[in-house]
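Quick start: what a row looks like.
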Amino acid sequence: MTQDNTAGQIDPLEGSPELKADLSRSLEFIAALQNDHMMWTAYNLLIQNKWVRPGGTVSHHIGTNGSVGEFIAKLRGKGETCLSIQCYGDDGPPFEQSEKWEHVSRFGKLFSQLGWVSDPNQERQVLIRFDGPSGTRG
């Protein structure tokens, strides 16, 4: 098992064990993953964002696309493989943009309750925002 060290370095292949442990213990997160649309949203939030504890200095990335797919497949408990999650997550299910924002908002609240927020200092071209399209609250 990987460990976060004092310099904030995390094995990029395995991701943050602390973040994974928190999500694995969340019955609400596991229940949400049973819905394919919620699974797709979670997969993309986890691969596209780094997460930080408010006031913390260590950014946590959950790992590679494959390790996120494996993590989600295990939590869903449907006999899926990391590739079935990863391929489905990359293509995405057909659903409305407003529904996507609803799911992003729900996960934003859940992650916040677990003590995690999306790292606001990421150098990214596109950030997933929890406030919905055009700055409207979802």
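That is the whole record. Confidence is low (pLDDT under 50) at residues 1-14, 124-138. The beta strands are 51-52, 117-118.
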